[in-house]
Amino acid sequence: MKIIQIHNLPANIDTLVNESVDQRFRAIEKLKQNFNSGNNTFDKAGEALFAAYIDNTLIGICGLNSDPYINSNTTGRVRHLYVLLAYRNQQVGKQLVKAVEQHATGYFKSLRLYTDSDGASLFYTKLGYQIQNGEHVSHFKGLNHEHYYQQKS
């Protein structure tokens, strides 16, 4: 498996979109719509989009944005994590989130996210996220500040 930062949506993103919609998870459909419309292309300072591949097969995706729900440029937001059902419980989601966190340490002091799924909540708490119940947030994680603000020019 390889995790890479991508700057365009993969040609086979519809595989993730279709399965996720079938699973009643519309975030990947929203990711595609927002990316294609230019509303969210993960191209602002610190933002990134990562894809997981086995061979040339897209099996997962996860993004990082500056958190739009708070007035702070030091908080990132984990967005749109999805792993194909056939590849779950194989560390794919964990590796995607770790790639997001590694990238985020150069730009943000903390990460936030929102999920209303008990399974996803357990997943994130196992990765060190703390439950934080609030508007637009369910989990929070402070980042290692050793590399904070070593932004690329």
Structure description:
There is one protein chain. This protein is an alpha+beta fold and 153 residues long. The chain has one domain: Gcn5-related N-acetyltransferase (GNAT) (Aminopeptidase), CATH 3.40.630. The chain has 4 helices and 7 strands. Strands 1-2-3-4-5-7-6 form a 7-stranded mixed β-sheet, sandwiched between helices. The chain starts with a strand and ends in an 11-residue tail after the last strand. The relative contact order is 0.15. The C terminus is likely disordered.
Write the layout of secondary structure elements.
Blueprint lengths: L1 E5 L6 H10 L4 H11 L10 E7 L2 E10 L8 E9 L8 H13 L5 E4 L4 H9 L3 E5 L2 E6 L11
Give the tally of β-strands. Answer: 7
Poorly predicted regions are: 147-153
The secondary-structure element order is: EHHEEEHEHEE
Count of helical segments?
4
Share of residues in helices: 25-40%
Q: Termini, distance in Å?
A: 30 Å
The CATH first-level class comes to Alpha Beta
Numbering strands along the chain, what is their spatial order in the largest sheet?
1-2-3-4-5-7-6
**CATH 2nd-level architecture:** 3-Layer(aba) Sandwich
Features:
Aminopeptidase, 7 strands, single chain, seven-stranded mixed β-sheet, 153 residues, 4 helices, globular, alpha+beta
Structure summary:
It is built from 4 helices and 7 strands. It has helices spanning about 15-20, 25-35, 90-105, 120-125, and strands at about 1-5, 50-55, 55-65, 75-85, 110-115, 130-135, 135-140. Helix 1 crosses helix 2 (about 25-35).
